[in-house]
Amino acid sequence: MRIDDPADPRLDDYRTLTDPELRKRFEAERGVFIVESPLAVEALAASRHAAATRSLLVGERRLARMAPVIEALAAHDVAVFTAPAEVLRATAGFDLHRGVVAAVDRPDPVPVEAFVDGCRRLLVLEGINDHENLGALFRNAAAFGIDGVLLDPSCADPWYRRSVRVSMGHVLRVPHARAERWPAILERMAAVQGWDVVTLTPDAGAVLHDRAPAGPDDRIAVVVGAEGPGLSDVVDGLPGLERRRIAMASGVDSLNVATSAAVALSHLLAPHLS
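Given the sequence above, the corresponding structure tokens read:
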């Protein structure tokens, strides 16, 4: 269906995309999240969230490329709208260069204990509030065979548009849950459930690459903190956790958090990947 009026109420899910705080309230009220870019929307169409898609908005210049996605989503009775570039710009509030966005119903929160019990490989995030870093971490998780991503209460929303886009759609594929009992869940994983909980910190004496990679039957969780402050003192001081640092040249004490996670995951898990 072609839409020529940016005030058309069928486009309401796509308004105020440039205002993060307003979008948070808007998306919470409407129970929706936005998937932007051809690659991310292609991932959406192939994911378990396809049936929850409310609508797809495609710029006229992207119709040919997105034809397979339109066909796939049509099987779920998804409304597909097309509009000229000026309508997309007026609706979203910026030039939507990628020309493709979808609105999707937000899934219910995942019960965290059952989520952890169902995983053997976890990436655990504390205080990650940058949406682009969050998206890159989900992309890394997918690349290195992580079963799920566990977030602390203060992490940003993985369903935010920029996180989904930067993840190349892997937020839609890698399950995640948010732990409210933090950091008690890490203690339980290490002391009760037999997880190897590896925390990355520049202050640790033990070097990451001195550690053997995880075995095929090991349950391993890699924990990273926000850039700048890193892991909180509370987490860093928990008993039973394995503190490791990434060796690097003199004068450099840290890496981007997504880069650090990729180095750790590659060392610990890549030997078991094809």
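The longest helix spans residues 131-143. Try to locate this feature in the token string yourself.
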